[in-house]
Amino acid sequence: QVQLQESGPGLVKPSQTLSLSCTVSGGPITANAYYWSWNRQPPGKGLEWIGYIGGRGSTFYSPSLRSRTSISRDTSKNQFTLQLRSVTPEDTAVYYCARYYSDWLAYDYWGQGTQVTVSS
User: Fold this and answer.
1) Mean pLDDT of all residues belonging to the chain
2) CA distance 96 to 111
């Protein structure tokens, strides 16, 4: 059974960098068939894709967030990390990590989500 767990600060000040990690258990993040994704849901809005890192380490980002986003990984910890720079209150959201299975063209596992609030 694959499990994903987000971790990171729940409060970030405007202009700072939001940093979240997702620790994966039950399978390696280096497997080629999977893409490890970050998504978010602002209050009262729908789910928004941020980006993902593939099993071989390649990264892909949402065009609207690309200039402020980096996704990296630590294979020794089986963990991948989101960094979102220069945050504003509009970045307040529940952030989710998830696994996208390319054979199914769908997400098959999600973390429980973590609330991040951007406020001074």
Assistant:
1) 96
2) 6
Closest CA to 95 of 52, 34, 48: 48
User: What pLDDT was estimated at residue 117?
Assistant: 98
CA distance 3 to 99: 10
Question: Rounded distance, CA 120 to CA 108, Å?
Answer: 36
Cα 76 from Cα 29, distance rounded (Å): 10
Indicate the residue type of 26: G
Reported as a single tens digit per residue, the pLDDT across 6-45 is 999 999 999 999 999 999 999 999 999 999 999 999 999 9
CB-side exposure of 60: number of CA atoms within 13 Å? 10
Residue type, 88: T
- The whole-angstrom separation of Cα 109 and Cα 16 is 30
